[in-house]
Amino acid sequence: MKSTTFQRHGSYTCNLVSKVGVHYERSKVDFFAVYLVPIDLWYIVPFAVAERNQSLNLAQYDGHKFAQYIEAWHLLEG
After folding, report:
1. Are 49 and 26 in contact (CB under 8 A)?
2. How far apart are CA 60 and CA 75, in angstroms?
3. Apex 32 CA angle, 9 and 55, nearest 5
4. pTM
5. Contact 20, 61 (CB under 8 A)
6. Are 31 and 44 spatial neighbours (Cβ–Cβ below 8 Å)?
7. What domain count does the chain have?
8. Measured between alpha carbons, how far is 37 from 4 in angstroms, rounded to an integer?
9. Rounded distance, CA 44 to CA 31, Å?
10. Which residues contact 78 (CB under 8 A, 6 or more apart)?
């Protein structure tokens, strides 16, 4: 689980590296659950979608690059 409060230009930035700056490994992570604290919103982003990014810029509007992952809890089923 990751969280962020950092907002800039209408989106929130969440770093996808560990506390010591190491990239997560595919063998250890299936999804990133990212919580946008100020707006009480979750993103469930598959590792395969985010693996080439050191951070994600997430926004709460239709058409956003990651909009399909807003509250996408169904991805964690089965």
Report:
1. no
2. 19
3. 40
4. 0.88
5. no
6. yes
7. 1
8. 6
9. 7
10. none
Per DSSP, helices labelled H in the chain are 47-50
Q: What is the CA radius of gyration of the chain?
A: 12
CATH of the domain at 24: 3.40.1350.10
pLDDT in tens, 19-43: 777 788 888 899 999 999 999 999 9
**CA dist 29 → 1, 35, 36, 55 (Å):** 10, 17, 20, 15
Contacts of 1 (CB under 8 A, 6+ apart): 33, 34, 35
pLDDT, mean over the chain: 90
- pLDDT category at 77 given cuts 50, 70, 90 is very high
List 4's β-bridge partners, or say none.
36
User: In terms of residue numbers, what domain contains 53?
Assistant: 2-76
